[in-house]
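Notebook entry, cofactor series.
This is the third protein in the set we're modelling with a bound small molecule. For this one the ligand is adenosine-5'-diphosphate. I'm keeping the input format identical across the series so the outputs can be compared line by line later. Sequence and SMILES below, as received.
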Amino acid sequence: MHSPHVIRQRAAVSRPRRETLNGHMSINLWFTGLSGSGKSTLAHAVEERLHLMGCRTYVFDGDNVRHGLCGDLGFSLEDRSENMRRIAEMVNLFLDSGVISLTAFISPLKADRERVKEIIGAENLIEVYCNCPLEICEERDVKGLYKKARTGEIKNYTGISSPYEVPENPDIELDTGTRPLRDCVNDIIAELRERGIILH
Ligand SMILES: Nc1ncnc2c1ncn2[C@@H]1O[C@H](COP(=O)(O)OS(=O)(=O)O)[C@@H](OP(=O)(O)O)[C@H]1O
Ligand SMILES: Nc1ncnc2c1ncn2[C@@H]1O[C@H](COP(=O)(O)OP(=O)(O)O)[C@@H](O)[C@H]1O
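Returned structure with ligand:
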């Protein structure tokens, strides 16, 4: 709980003014899916496309969050929940800054994803479910961690020894197991156009 003596300063430069300057709306693309499902790859590929279109963007992923802001957190369900809460608060600030943020975290539990929507505001977030079967994620084993999870060297590994609750009504669901990356990127860009987030 914050101190009652912390009073908000009203900014003269507001989110709508920043959006007008940027020439696009701010939004958050919240990628969720198993480790190896393609969240990071897709987030960076979408960012690349948007950047080339002149949009202001930023990707949050384990690399820039779990080493710093959330460096004190592990992979218990409580720590994952706190990880997501902090990221959601960060996303809120980025929304206000006029940026299109892209967040690539497993975000395994439905209740935590719901809380994220409460913090950010459902209208400010597009939930993208990277739907890739565990077998393919495990076969990819991008970081070699599934192997370690199977031998028990890593505990509480999502999909092996820790749950992943499939999103029931994601805004976008992509078959990242078989659909080519370029097509997945196109689907997301199309959704941003349809919602009027980007105009070209
Ligand atoms: N126990 C356990 N379970 C799942 N993942 C693990 C674990 N330990 C380490 N890792 C690596 O950390 C990445 C997932 O971190 P996230 O912050 O996205 O997880 S969460 O949203 O808080 O559940 C995940 O990377 P991604 O492949 O980017 O998903 C893993 O490489
Ligand atoms: N349509 C797709 N979208 C994203 N990644 C894909 C796709 N098809 C194949 N891949 C591959 O799957 C792997 C996904 O790894 P990564 O992006 O690190 O996943 P995550 O961030 O979910 O752990 C990469 O090697 C990527 O090249």
